[in-house]
Amino acid sequence: MKSHRLLLHVCCGPCGTSTHRYWFAEGADLVGFFYNPNIQPLMEFRRRVEGVRDLAQQLGMPLVEDLSYDPAHWFSQVMRVTGGGGEEPQDSTSPRCARCIGMRMERAAREAVAQQCEAFSTTLSISPWQDHEVIRAQGREASARHGVEFLYRDLRPLYPESRRLSREWGLYRQKYCGCLVSEWERYRDS
Ligand code: SF4
């Protein structure tokens, strides 16, 4: 891929380090895009926004931000209460995560069209903690809806390098995926 204008959805600073390096080496003309209304609570959301701004500044990458933030709306979109009154089991591959990723891929595809990009991708593709089949499926569905190509690569082998770079560059490093459920999963046994 040479000189394609690529919108890179950035979930956080650390995941953006090696992901940016990869696509830059591929010849992409990168536009960063922050849209992550799943990050809770608000002060954590703000820390991650700052982390992504820090990353973009260090890389000289243009950054577009959608800072929409409404946890009540987000929960209403991603949680589905069952007929029995219970809720879905909460694990890393839950339907909640598929909807959460789908919401972000949908918005990224829309922004890729607005920014006149030929394609879009996401830094989620470097994370060993995410379900990559879900990322790929949700990206492709958003791609088909908006007529802009979704580029998926399995960048998990670059994950250790991204952690090292994030330390070297002094980026904010979060301890959990984003939503309050993931924060609970991270700390419940501690
Ligand atoms: S665990 Fe992460 S991917 Fe899953 S719903 Fe929460 S923020 Fe979204």
What can you tell me about this protein's structure?
The chain has 190 residues and is of the alpha/beta class. It has one domain (20-80, 91-187). 48% of the residues lie in helices and 11% in strands. The chain has helices spanning 13-25, 42-59, 71-78, 95-114, 132-146, 159-168, 180-187; strands at 5-9, 29-34, 63-65, 119-122, 149-150. Helix 1 packs across helix 6 and helix 4 runs parallel beside helix 5 (132-146). The longest helix has 20 residues, at 95-114. The structure holds iron/sulfur cluster.
Q: How would you concisely characterize the structure shown here?
A:
Helices cover 48% and strands 11% of the residues. It is built from seven helices and five strands, in the order βαβαβααβαβαα.
Summarize the SSE layout with pairings.
Blueprint: E1 5-9, H1 13-25, E2 29-34, H2 42-59, E3 63-65, H3 71-78, H4 95-114, E4 119-122, H5 132-146, E5 149-150, H6 159-168, H7 180-187
Bound molecules: iron/sulfur cluster (SF4).
Iron/sulfur cluster is lined by residues 38, 78, 96-97, 100-101, 177-179, 181-182.
